[in-house]
Amino acid sequence: MYEIIMEDMTKVKGRTEISELGEFGLIDRLTSRFGAQCKSTIFGVGDDAAVLNASEKEAMLVSTDMMVEGIDFDLTYFPPKHLGYKAVTKGISDIVAMNGVAEQVTISLAISSKISVEFLDDFYDGVAFAAQEAGVDVVGGDTSASVTGLTISVTAIGRAEKERVSYRNGAMEHDLICLTGNVGASYMGLRLLEREKRVLGDVPNPEPKFAGYEYLLEKYLKPRARYDIVESLLEEDIVPTSMIDISDGLASEVLQICKSSQCGARIYLERIPIAKQTNELADEMNINSVVAALNGGEDYELLFTVPLEMRERIMNLGCIDIIGHITSAEQGKVLVTPDGAEIALEAQGFKKQ
Ligand code: ADP
Ligand code: MG
Q1: CATH 3.30.1330.10 fits domain 2-164
Q2: Ligand number, closest to the Cα atom of 94
Q3: Which percentage of the chain shows pLDDT scores above 70?
């Protein structure tokens, strides 16, 4: 029989604040005990998705993500339809980051009493739209009540040829560091929404000023996973030596690749792609757009590495920038400014917001 102890466990075991470990330190501490018991587990914790044995040639990919009200989204300005769309994007993006094709998602909700059925109808319209667009089936989930707010969990399942799976740990010295699209737009979209919420908080029938910044709002509220890139890489027969999606911010993702691949990196500041609207709003709000690009996060673009010889083939793909290259671990992780100065690349630590 279990012995039930009705007392505060923290008194018995002491108490370490989670902030002392940070998000990644916490995950390491909790998961370091897990090895693989099953033959079908090819790769467990430590990448965008787990890699499982599906058949001789194919791997199955599985990833789970959570979105928590008040932490990951604010319902005062997040339309439910977009929230549903973004939840699916988050799931698919982790499969894409392994160079895989997402095929199924499950959606689980913990719902507070302030959420109406109509809200959930709209949320599922967004889920259905994103799933249809990406060719993904919604195959299940779970529904529960919540005391404190809405929590959304998405599990995504996908597939890839084993030989085409891109892990975080395969980057080699001299590899080119490539980035799709641009970075910092999602963060500036969030800053714009928060500014309008602050300004219009007590105004009846508020009319927020979003003109000219529609692209930023779309990148934050309704980002599309880059499954098109997985198709392009297949067509061009390119397998990135490493890949990760930009969820926590460009700087953090470069550091993740360096940590997993045990290498260093040189990123050239003037090569980081920043959209015109991102620069414009950053100027208007007195924010350094480079900081938004490096630390903003939630871009759902792809960061990947390829051997140096592939330079031309990568350039031919279009919409991909080569922002730096991989170095030896001893050379460190540095950001090179246009005047040649070197700054240590640093992540912001715990997840933003
Ligand atoms: P991403 O930002 O790509 O979603 P995370 O940083 O959330 O990835 O997670 C990194 C790795 O840690 C992944 O392999 C993930 O499955 C694993 N992980 C995260 N949280 C937990 C947890 N509570 N228990 C077990 N594994 C976890
Ligand atoms: Mg990821």
Answers
A1: yes
A2: 2
A3: 95
